[in-house]
Amino acid sequence: MEEQDVVRALAALAQPLRLQVFRALVVSGPQGLTPGTMAEALGVPQNSLSFHLKELAQAGLVTQERSSRYIIYRAAFERMNALLGYLTQNCCQGSACAVQPAAQGCGC
Predict the structure, then answer these.
(1) Residue 83 scores a pLDDT above 60
(2) Residue 16: strand, helix, or coil
(3) Within a domain: residue 40?
(4) CA 46 – CA 98 distance, rounded (Å)
(5) Could you tell me the residue range of the domain that residue 67 belongs to?
(6) What pLDDT digit, counting tens, does each position of 30-70 carry?
(7) Cα–Cα distance, 75 to 60 (Å, whole number)
(8) What is the dihedral of CA 92, 101, 85, 97, to 10 degrees?
(9) How many domains does the chain have?
């Protein structure tokens, strides 16, 4: 992944609603979501959502596919993995390492 692509992807995710949309698409998995379903779930007008989906698509983070009269949006998992790979490429000064899993619960 080129640095310019990384910057574009991070810029697209650096907006609260776009981040929520992307996370919703990640959770939905390969089946994806329609804009109507996302707008209802996130409580936003469809025209606002369309703008944000366009930004995510231009950054390569989501794909769209027409299915009958609907448009299905999906997270671009390969692109997301490439972004994560770029960000962690030189982690731990090149040594093999793993991110420690978050603790289960808060321990309160």
Answers:
(1) yes
(2) helix
(3) yes
(4) 40
(5) 3-88
(6) 999 999 999 999 999 999 999 999 999 999 999 999 989 99
(7) 9
(8) 30
(9) 1
